[in-house]
Structures are given as structure tokens and as C-alpha cells.
Amino acid sequence: MDQARSTITKIFNGTEGTYTRFLTQNMEEDSSHVEMKLSSDVDEEVEGNGVADNGKHHYARPAYVSKPGLCNPRNIFIAVTVAILISFLIGLLIGSNMYKRSTEEGSSSCKTSFTPSSAPSDDEVIPIETVPSLDWSDITALLKRKLTTSGIETSLREFSSDSHQAGSAGDELLANKVLTKFKDNGMEPWLDTHYVKVQDRPASGVNKVTFRGNTFSEPGYLSYSATGTVQGAVLYAYYGQEDDLRRLQDIGIDMSERVLLIRAGKISYAEKVANAAKVNASAVLIYPDPADYPFAENVDLLGHVHLGSGDPYTPGFPSFNHTQFPPAKSSGLPSIPAQTIRASTAAAIMREMEGRSPPHGWANGGLQDYKLGSTNDNVSVEVNNLLTEIQIHNVFGVVKGFIDPDRYVVIGAQRDAWGAGFAKSTVGTSLLVELARVISSMVHEDGFKPRRSIVFASWSAGEYGAVGATEWLEGYLPSLNMKAFSYISLDGVVAGSENFKASASPLMYDLIQSTSKEVSLPTDPKKTIFAQAGSNFETNVMEPMRMDDPAYPFLTFSGIPSVSFRFTQDKPYPFFGTLLDTRSNLESKASNLPALIKAAGEMAGQMALRLVHDHLLRLNTEKYLNIMRLQVSKINKEVMSLQRSGRLPKTLQMKWLMSALGSYGRASRNLISTIQNSDLDDIEQCRIINDRIMGVERDLLSPYVSPMETPFRHILLGSGWCTVQDVLTQLAVIREGVVGANTDLLKNQFALTTWTIQSCANALVGNVWDMDNEI
């Protein structure tokens, strides 16, 4: 407008050689700009279609020549009229453009407030948001409003089933229901089909246990047990933990060729059988002690004893479409028979057992008598389980991201179960379907535009050891551990109402904690889950992830940061792995069930939404530094002690491992500094940083072992000789002077552990020219 006034002034003053030119940008670009260029330099004007140089561009412009009579009153009047008209049109255009912009902002789902001080100036270029998104408060409010207890109840009724064992017609029916639900949400779902080997009950009859002339037929069973008939003297071994068996050894009991009678609980069935095999036991009998399992004495236990996950007959590779693979077996398959027996059977055996009394505390169960057993208490165990091949289907749906659609978080739930499996599978499947519906609705109806994608997965054959999920991981491992940045498990999310517990990758600890501050307790809506946990959240809530956790293969086999969580009681939910896992029994342990499921859905949903909404992934690499320091400190203490006593040579030095630890610490701090100095509106920069964060979990998988032999090769959280924990085990073996202690193996473990940590640090740094070469 100042230029317009200047033009009018010059016209009234009769300035010669004056011209006015308007350059108006496309109004649809929402950045209209009006330029009025003035000049009185007659020398720059060229007769005809001249071209003038403004220093940057050449504009073709008409020539204006002073002519007599230009300043006569008629011409002045015309000029003034034109100038006023031009000024009016300029104001009209600016006003129209500002109205258009304010209207679009008012109707947009992204709520932005403008104040006079923050309003853009005429010369400012207004940035265009690539993917408009809701504020975080809007996102969480939508999730809580749309995820309703009534919707959860509807899903619970629809997906409840008394018969949906993996590979059965009932399992396939539920798979089709999930597929239909995903289609209804506009998710373009797909199936992942596998042919896997599982071990079922005998085709005819049952497995048997015979003691002192009495034969007990046992309908329960443990899949993947060794088969056949074995005999041996029965020995009570408490929970069958390594410490329990070591305690028996300390009192001079030889467990070789003994049949161990073990209480269910504390650790998985597979770990109990593996521990028994290590001490050369001939078989294992597992029973539910009434002190731990408050149900009738004739209830059967069902489970599996594969010390691993997935199809144990295709270890490390997928079982697609009857593909012919070389004969192979998982190293986690047991070499001895294992059978579950009812509490009544255990009581009958225990009453007839002889021998000494058990160690202090071992007789605290619900049976009348507890004896360790003598070498004359012979028992016969007959296991005739049948190995069969079944077809299973994993069902998937996806909500695609708008910036990085090829990066995704996976939310998954087991669909199959022995019997009703209400807490084990129905709750998780129902919640999975509801979260898929709600988040799809937020995208299609409410303008939510996630940066990254969310994959919803319904797994089959979970009862046999996360078979469906592990086969999928094995089939797509090269892609998954590069692009799947988190896994959230919905299995067993409600098993009580008193406490909240979680198991996760340390990278996700901060995310779990911050989310718990936003979710109210279903038992007391005025308090959050975080408030209930007390002052030390990690100590009171976080638990180590066990091998039988459904998220374990994602974390330790695939290197994907993972989390599982649950509302629970002080005592474990007793109905898992039984036919008593029904809604009524779950409600006896968890009152106000729909509210609990909704709270679990808010936890899972908000963690997933936070991961796909923020510019940078909410994964804290510093957490692993603390764990590394703790483990290295333990190793250093052991090494120093053994070297002082002469049991370990001085050539084994800690400085290289310490150096690798320092490299990781510097790389982690460098990443934090990079984040603080980065432009979060730079999409490519954010993607580069996120890729560095995603690589940490993957790079902690040992590259020096085969996934076929050692699938859980995460050096800090996995299982096998490649782990830091096994380094400590080898040091303990040397300290105790056990025959066969291998110093050379320990040196190899040191070297490989050092280079795995150093490689992780190098990858975290990013560019090859920025890597730490001090080691």
C-alpha cells in the first residue's frame, strides 16, 4: 500500500517515465504476493518489446514514453481513478486471501491459534504442513472416547469360543471373523499361512503314570515331550528351578535316572524339563500344588516343553507351504519324557513315598505329606503324544502412515487356545479388533494422520510356544528387523486387578512410564497407573522378560523392541493352561472386567499412537547403557577375583570390554546431542535419526551364532552361550572348579561380546566417518 501511495504521489507530481507492474502468484498456493515495481529511469526503458536486467531475472516489459499533455487535468483524473481502483482491488485480494486462510484453519482438524504477534508478515513464506495431524491431547481424547466398554463387550461376545485350538475349525472361524473386521475397517487385510508340526494327545487313550501297582490315566499333556516309557525312582524337586536342583545336590542326592516330581509355577514347563535333563533325570512329572492352584484336584494342565518358540522342526527358518527343508530339530526339544499329572495323582504318589523330609520351606504346599522319596520308590511314565502337521493362519491389517509408511509398530494377540482360553486369547483378540476399529476410525473420520504405520496381527498356535508369530518373524526377518520398530503384545493383559506389571526392552521403559501417567486406574479413576506404582516405577512395575513371554521372540530373535504388560494379582492367574480359563473365573480374579480391558487398550493404544505420531521414536538408547554398565561391573569383579586367586590368566584383560562400553556411551550421548540440534521439521533428518535408534536392538543380536542353533541371540536379554549372562556363568564355573571349565571358551566369549557392543556403538553413531576408533 505504501508503494501505491508513492505511485499516486508521483502521478500528482507529474513524474515522467513512471510505470506500474503487478505480479500476482497463484492464489491456490495460499501464498499470494503482490509486487508493484516503480521506475523513473527513462534510460532503462526500451522502445518496443524491450528487456530490462534487474540483476537476477529478465522481464519483458512495455516501453513508456513521455508525451505532451500527460499532466493535463483529464489525464491526472484518470490516473488517480486507476490508482484508487488498484488500491481497492489490492485490499480486496488481501482480505479475500486472509478470509480463505482463516476459514480453512477453522475447519481443519489441526487446531492452530494465531495471535497478532505471531501472525506472518507480508514478506514471510508460510510453511505448508506436509501431513496435518491432531494435537497429542486430541489424539488421546479421541482414543479414550472411541474405545468404549460397550464396544469391548460386543467383541468379547463375538470372539468367545469354547473350541478354537490351533488349526481347528474353531480357530479358522475366528480367523475369518478377524479378517472380516479388518475389511470393514478399510484396512485391506491379508493372511500368512504356515504348515507346522505340533504334538497332540495320543490318538487313542491317554498318557499314564504307574506307581506301586496303581495306574493313573492323565488327560493333560505337554506338547513336544519325548515319547516312550521310562522308569525310575521318584524324587520331589520342588519347582525344578536350577537353585532347587543345586540344593538337592548339596545334600548329596544323585538325580541321575530319577523321575522328578515338580510343582507347576515360578518358571515355564520347558525350563523345568531342561533343568531336569541337565542333571540326567529320566523323566519329569509336573503337578499343580493346591497351595498355588486353588481349584479341584482333578483339573488337568496343558502346555508345551519346547525351550524356544516357533515350529521346532523348522528352527530358524519358516514353515511355508510344505516347502522341503533338510531334516532339522530345535536344540530346545527335550530329550526326556514330560507329563502333567493332576493334584490328586501327586497326592496319591506322595503319600506312598519314602525317604527323608524335604529341605526347609519345600513342604509349604497343599498336600498332606511331603517326602523327597527313596531309591525304591519306582515309578513308570508312559508318554504317547502324536506328532501331527496342521495348517495355521496369521491375519493382518494395517493403518498406513503418511510420511514413513514403510516403518511400523506391530500390535499382536494370540487367537487360539485349549478350551475357552478367555484370559489367554479372547480378551487379547477382542481388544486387538477394537483398537483396529478405533484407530482406523480416527484416520478416516477425525483427520488423524500418523507419520508411520500400525500393523495389527492375530496369531495362531500361540499355545505351542508363539508358533505363528515366530514363523512370521523367521519368514520376513531381513525386512522386519529393519522396518518394524516396536511390538506390543495384548496377550494376557488382564489377569487380575490389584497390580500393573510390564516386561519390555529397556528402550521402551520411558515410553511405558510416560503412558502410565495418562491412563487412569480402572479401580480408581482419580488415580493413574503411574501413581499406583509408587515412587520407583521401574522397580515396582518392570519385570525381566521370560522365554515364555509372547513378546520374547520379537525382542531376542528379531531385535525388535517389544513390550507385554498386564493387570494382575499378587499371585499368578491360576487358570492359564487349563480348561477353566473362562470368563466367570477371570471375573472372580478381576472385577469390573470391561473397564480393565479398556484401560489395557488405552495403554497399548497410546504407546502405539505415540510411536507413530511423534517426529522421533520414543525409544531411549541411554537405558541400555545402564544395563551394560551393571553387567560389565559384575564381570569385572569376577575377573579380578579369579585373577588374584590364580584361576584366570592375566592375559584376559577387561580394558577392551570397558572400551566398547565407553564407545556405546559416547555414541548414545552423541545421538542425544544430534537430536537437540536437529530441525524436527526436516523429514529426512528425522528418518535418519530414527533409523539409528531402531538399529540398537537389532545390533545387540550376536552375529557370531546361527539363529538355527541359538535363536535368542540378544547378548543382554537372550539365552545361549553368546550372552553376557553366559559369560558370568562360565566365570562361576571356573570359580567353583567344575571339571571341564573352559578358559579358551571364556576368552572367545569376551572377544565376541566386546565386538558386538562395539559394532552396536558404531552403528548408533551413524556415518562411517564419525565412528569411534579408539578401541
TrEMBL record:
Domain PA: 236-297
Membrane-protein topology: Single-pass type II membrane protein
GO cellular component, one term: melanosome
Keyword hit for Iron: no
4Fe-4S among keywords: no
The record's account of how the chain is modified after translation: Stearoylated.
Protein name as it appears in the record: Transferrin receptor protein 1
Organism expressing this protein natively: Silurus asotus
